Amino acid sequence: MYELSYVDSLTGIYNRRAFDKDAKKNFKSSILFFCDLNGFKKINDIYGHEIGDQLLIEVSKRMTSFIDNKGTVYRLGGDEFSILLNKNESVDVDVFINNLFEIISESLSLSDVVINIGISTGYSVYPVDGLILEDLIRIADKRMYQAKFQYKNRNKV
User: Fold this and answer.
1) Which residues have a Cβ under 8 Å from the Cβ of 56 and sit 6 or more positions away?
2) How far apart are CA 132 and CA 118, in angstroms?
3) Is the pLDDT of residue 156 over 50?
4) pTM above 0.70?
């Protein structure tokens, strides 16, 4: 029953419901990241949803491996992900985001199709960016869309 409620059925990582629960409990001790794949709709349109699903599974694996035990990765829906990274980890946010981009943008071979995709990421930190969870979510989301606009031409299909 827990798995049905808190685990994404496609990727096997935690879902939006788990994020909502965990973020409410841990936002003061975590760095909040919002991530969105660049060009995902185009990949679905060109190669179909089966390849899109395989891509989401692979991205989830890469993100989870990259995070290791330093936090938790969630699939919020579609091609949107969130990370709650333990604040007690010594993290340079810009370096973290660049490393995440590099790992996600490595070429993927899915069903004889080679795909390159980018990721746009925004973040927020308590209490610098807000004192309540809703403000932190809004700031991370805003920064993610700023990054998406800034790097919109970095992804390749």
Assistant:
1) 10, 11, 75, 79
2) 30
3) no
4) yes
